[in-house]
């Protein structure tokens, strides 16, 4: 079944994770070009765990991948920068208008799974991408640990990727999203496009924490609930709607006392307006984080973000959250609390 997440209010349509028709392991290899993932070899490399399933998870399964295609929208290369040693072009975010640095593939050292094998450490996979750990040389700043999000077809459109990167850059000031280092420079060899962002160390997804075994104290769950409400408030206050808020897209650093959260994945986000995601009833039933009005063709809004937050709150093992989560999940958007009400509520129960 060909299912697409058609976004009708802007030109930056991206299919959603869950509706992708190409999530099978058997199709995985064709999405990534691993040629010269680092500069050490011309041979095809193995990508560790790329696209093994639909839900993001680290994996130790290696796949042999074959070269893919990279078709940039040439109009995006609009800032003629001086021919410098590091950069010949930069991209501009179609949403924020900000300049996005390009990072050369050869400046990235992808982390290998072991020293001998040509297998690279995959931090997680989603439907649109696989994310790899590495280090990058940043001008005058030395080496930085990075997470490189490599996109697969049909999600590898530069316009959408530049939009995601630009929003990440804009959200840096909130302190709850990964820093943006840049976009992978395309090469004549046709590497797949990617976003180079701050590596969130020692993290697991909130989904993994909710369903998994790591035990954390009640106090830490309160901290998580607080950071969720605070983070959503901070992002919405910047004019950004995440439009895909779910526990898979939240990273938790469980090694810190406060279980520090990071909101990742702005792949469906919008700026200063909502988006429509037309879908069938069957598709809507898979997306439990999407508010009912969105499934009915309305635009996303701060209220649909609150609905998504309510879904996460429902999954968090704190009884005290059930009252507010129930309110967030109201079918009528106007009956949902604001993110400010939610933040006050969480502060009171902490
Ligand atoms: N900055 C980061 N630091 C560490 N791990 C990360 C980072 N960004 C992403 N990951 C890992 O990669 C996974 C996939 O990332 P992301 O959600 O951005 O990709 P996606 O393909 O858009 O996923 P989805 O299918 O949910 O839309 C995450 O769940 C997480 O495990
Ligand atoms: Mg994701």
From TrEMBL:
Keywords: ATP-binding, Nucleotide-binding. ATP binds at residue 149. Residues 117-350 form the Protein kinase domain. One of its GO terms (cellular component) is nucleus. CDD domains: PKc. InterPro entries: Kinase-like_dom_sf, Prot_kinase_dom, Protein_kinase_ATP_BS. GO terms for biological process: mitotic DNA damage checkpoint signaling. Pfam families: Pkinase (PF00069). This is Protein kinase domain-containing protein. It comes from Mytilus coruscus.
């Amino acid at each position: 079944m060909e299912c697409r997440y058609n976004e009708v209010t802007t030109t930056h349509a991206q299919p959603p994770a869950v509706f992708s028709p190409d999530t099978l392991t058997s199709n995985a290899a064709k999405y990534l070009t691993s040629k010269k993932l680092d500069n050490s070899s011309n041979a095809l490399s193995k990508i560790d765990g790329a696209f093994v399933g639909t839900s993001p998870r680290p994996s130790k399964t290696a796949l042999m991948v074959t070269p893919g295609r990279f078709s940039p929208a040439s109009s995006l290369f609009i800032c003629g920068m001086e021919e410098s040693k590091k950069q010949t072009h930069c991209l501009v975010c179609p949403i924020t208008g900000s300049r996005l640095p390009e990072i050369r593939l050869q400046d990235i050292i992808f982390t290998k799974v072991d020293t001998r094998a040509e297998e690279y450490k995959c931090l997680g996979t989603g439907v649109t991408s696989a994310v790899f750990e590495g280090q990058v040389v940043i001008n005058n700043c030395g080496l930085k640990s990075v997470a490189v999000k490599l996109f697969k077809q049909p999600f590898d459109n530069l316009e959408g990727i530049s939009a995601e990167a630009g929003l990440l850059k804009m959200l840096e000031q909130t302190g709850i999203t990964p820093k943006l280092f840049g976009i992978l420079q395309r090469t004549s060899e046709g590497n797949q496009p990617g976003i180079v962002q701050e590596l969130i160390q020692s993290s697991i997804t909130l989904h993994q924490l909710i369903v998994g075994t790591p035990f954390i104290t009640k106090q830490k769950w309160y901290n998580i609930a607080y950071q969720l409400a605070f983070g959503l408030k901070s992002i919405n206050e910047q004019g950004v709607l995440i439009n895909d808020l779910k526990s898979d897209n939240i990273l938790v650093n469980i090694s810190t006392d406060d279980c520090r959260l990071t909101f990742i994945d702005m792949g469906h986000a919008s700026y200063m307006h909502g988006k429509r995601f037309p879908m069938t009833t069957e598709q809507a039933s898979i997306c439990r984080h999407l508010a009912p009005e969105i499934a009915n063709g309305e635009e996303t809004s701060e209220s649909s973000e609150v609905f998504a937050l309510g879904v996460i709150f429902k999954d968090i093992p704190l009884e005290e959250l059930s009252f507010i989560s129930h309110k967030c999940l109201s079918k009528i958007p106007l009956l949902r609390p604001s993110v400010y009400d939610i933040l006050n509520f969480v502060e009171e129960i902490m």
